[in-house]
Every structure is written in C-alpha cells, then in structure tokens.
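My main concern about presentation is that the manuscript never shows what a single data entry looks like. Each protein is reduced to its one-letter sequence and a matching series of backbone shape codes. For the editor and my fellow referees, an illustration may be useful. For illustration, here is how one protein appears when written out as sequence plus structure tokens:
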Amino acid sequence: MDHHDLGLEHDLRRLLATAQSRRRSLRWLAGAGALALLGCGGDGDDDTTGTTTTTSSGSSGSGSSGGGSTSTTCSVVPEETAGPYPGDGSNTSGGSIANALALSGIVRSDIRSSVAGASGTAQGVPMTVVIDLVNTGASCADLAGYAIYLWHCDAAGRYSMYSSGVTAENYLRGVQATGSDGTATFTTIVPGCYSGRMPHMHFEVYRSTGTATQYTNKLRTSQIAFPTDVCSAVYNGSSLYSASITNLARISFATDNIFSDGYSTQLATVTGDLTNGYVARLQVGIAA
C-alpha cells in the first residue's frame, strides 16, 4: 500500500537537498572564477625604449589623484646639446670660465634677477615653470632631492653671461631641488625667439644641489619646447618681444635643428594669459 503523504515529504526533502548542493557548487565555481580573474592581472612593465606604464586603483603617486583607476606613462627625456651658452663651467666667455653654478645665491626659485653682485633683472611676460622629475626605472616614481639647473634667453633673445650687453649679468639661470613630490618650480619669463631656433629653455639634472656645481656632475641635459600658439600670443601681445614675431614666423618644429626629430616628451603644457602670466609644466623622466 502506497503512503502518498510520506512519499511527498520524502520527495520534498530530496529536492531541498539537491538545491542546497547546487547552490554550494555555484558558490565554489564563482570563487574559482574570481581567483582565475585575479590571476590574469599584471603589474606595469618597463619596455626597452625607456617608457614605463603603470595602472593602479585609488590615488597615484605621480601627480594623479582621486578614486577609480589611474594610468601613468613616463619616458626618458631625450639627451640634447647644452648649446653655446650653458654657464655650467664647460666653456668660456670673455676669456674666463663661465660657471653660474659656482655663484652665491644661484640656488633660488625666482631666476629673473641676477645674483652675486650683478643687479640686472630680465623683463618679460611672467612664467612659472614646474618640472616633475620621475624615475622611468621604478614605475614613474617621483624623484625627491635631485636638482634642476634651468637657463634660457631673455625677451630679446640674449643669454646672460655671453650675449653682448648682458655679459655682466647672470639672470634667467638658477638651481632648484626637487621636493617630496619630485617637482622643482621656477619663477621666470617667457623666453624670446631668436633666429634659427624655436622658443625653448635648457636644463640639466643633478643628483643633488650639492653636486650641481659643474657640468661634469650632471646626469642629463635636455630642452623644453613650448606650444607655438602660446608663444605667438605673447610675442604679439608684448612690445618686449618685437623681434621674436619675425623669428618665430621663419621657424617651425619641423625645421628646428633640435626638435625636428621629435619633441613630444619635451613639449610643456602651458596655461594662463598675458594679463596673469603663464604656467608651464613638464614631466621629465630619467633612469635613476
């Protein structure tokens, strides 16, 4: 004789047990899938060209912040000539070694005025230059405690210590240590454009301000380029740069003997205007 009530209860228990078993199996499979996905992740890698790419969640230590995923790419800045007017002890001017790095007061943020007894001040449209020094060999980490020597021409295209009329001056030259965030900041002016070159600034990287005393200690030499439209706005908007208008019209990045082979890692990002001045920022990568 069949007992339908007992049979139904028995069937329900079996169905419940089967469902619980299937739920446990699904949970196990989900966990295994998550582990498999985690195993597919990878760290940022360094390629053989000196470019580093890192991806992380949350805040980045290379200037980016905020939630979510951030990505940072850095490349070794090209080695460039220091040119004929470095003032780093590597050549002479007027028969004497020209070394601004040995001058008292050369370590300073505002480089518009001369130091060490010279009194000249370079006139021009104000520009703040922020250089962010990073290590391409360590996931673009900020390099603190290094030193940047920056120099450039004035609004008329002259270099202090070398050019006629300003050989007794040493303005638009200075050294700054990089802070904990890897940046060095200079207060200066927009450089002029002299014949044959796009507007630019020169810089050398040293291990510290203590070693930034002569060119033999430098780690790298390079140059900063500036957007053409910004330079054009400055030159046409300030009478101090009158000669630069014609010089800029005769040159381009394609014909410049330094930047013609590429300048993407040397082109500063510039914001601002003639009334308030400009801010130029550039990330500089070295293999430290």
